[in-house]
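Researcher: Good morning. I'm working through a list of sequences from a screen, and I'd like to move beyond sequence-only analysis. For each chain I'm collecting a predicted structure so we can compare shapes side by side. This is the next one on the list. No need for commentary yet; just the structure.
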Amino acid sequence: MNRILKQVSNTKGIRFYSSSSQLDSEYMFPSVRRLLVEYGINSSKDVTATGPQNRLLKGDVLAYIKSKNLSPVDRLSLISSSIKSSASASASASASASESLSTQIKDQIKIVTTITNDKTKTKVIYEDIPNNNIRRVIATKLSQSKQQVPHFYMTVECELDKVLAMRKSMPEDVKISVNDFVLRACALALRDNPQANAKWSDEHGEAILNPTVDISFAVSTDRGLITPIITNTDKKQLLAISNESKQLALKARDGKLKPEEFIGGTFSVSNLGMFGITSFNAIINYPQAGILAIGTGRKVLRPPSTYQPINTISVKNDNTTQANAGINTNGPLTLEQLEKLFDSTLPKQQEDIKKINGGVTLENQPKFEQPKVVNVMDVTLSGDNRVFDDEIAGKFLSSFKYYLSNPQNMIL
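Model: Good morning. C-alpha cells for this chain:
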C-alpha cells in the first residue's frame, strides 16, 4: 500500500497525515507539523524549505500561509478525505481488515466531534476593545512618566475629626465634601512651600517654580480618567472650590471640558477613599512634579497625648506648691513610661507624697486622660525626586496635615 493512514493522538484530539509527504520526517519540528496539518498543506510540493539541510521551518509555513491567505482546514473534513483516500488505496485488503479499520475510524471521528463540540460550547474568547483617544494618551503619558520620572513616596496620617465636625455644623444647603477640604489644604500647603509647587525642566536641567497654584483632581469617566484644573486654588475659599469642582466633574463626565480646563496644572490630587482604598501610590502626571493619593477614612485608637492628670495634684507644705509631673508622649510608650503610668495610681501618689512632705492635702480629685478613638486617613505623596528632596516633601506634608487637622485655619 503506497499510502498508509497514520494517526497521532494527544490530549487535544487526533491528527491524520500521509506517510508520502514530509509530515513523516523525523527532523521536522512539531510546530511545523501542526501547521501543515491544520492548514492542509503538502510541504514537499507547495512550501519552499529554507532551513539547514533543506529543513522546513515554521517561518516558511507561516510565510506561505500569509501569501496564500489560507484558513485552517476543518478537522472533520480532513478526516473524511483521509478515509476516502485510504479506502481507495486499500481496495485489495481483506473485508475483515476493512471492517476493523472502518470501525476504528468511526470511533476516532466520534472522539474528534466530541472534542470539537466541547470546544465550541465552552469557547470563551476575549474581546478586544479599541482604545479611544483619551485612554491612548493616558497610557502613553503614564508609561513615560513611570519610566522617565524618578518617583519617590512619603505617607502621612491625618486626623479628620475636626473636618467631620465642621461639616456637620454647616447648614444643610451647604454641601462641602472631604475632598474639597483636601484640595484647599493642598493648595495652602503649596502656597506655604513654593519649592513643592515646581516642575522639572529638561531644557534648563533644573526645577522651575510655578507662579500660580493650580490643582488638578482626578475624575473617572466612561472614556477614561481625566484631570480638570481648579486655577488659583489657594486664593479660593472652600465653598468656591466645592462649586467649581462639581461643575468641572460634571463637564468631564459629559465630555464638554475645554482644553484649558484639563491641560496644565501644577499639582494633582487623586482620591480613592470612596472606593474603600486604604492607601496607594499614584503616578505623577508629568510635567507636574507631585501628586497626592488620598485613602479612605478609618477609626484608630489613640493613646493619650499626655498622661498627666487633667486636674493636677497640688501639694501644700510650708507655703510651697508642687505639681505632679506627667509623662508627655505622642508616640509608642517605652517600658519605663509604662511602668510610670501604672505606678501613678492615686493611693500610690498619696503615700509617696506623705512620706516626702509629712502630710498632704488634695485640692481636687485627679482625673486621668483616657485613650480615644479618632478618624484618620493616609495621604501618600508621589514626588519627582529631581524637584522634591526629603526636606521639601516633609515640610509640604507637615503643612498639609496641619491644615487638614485644623480646618478652621482654612477659612481665614
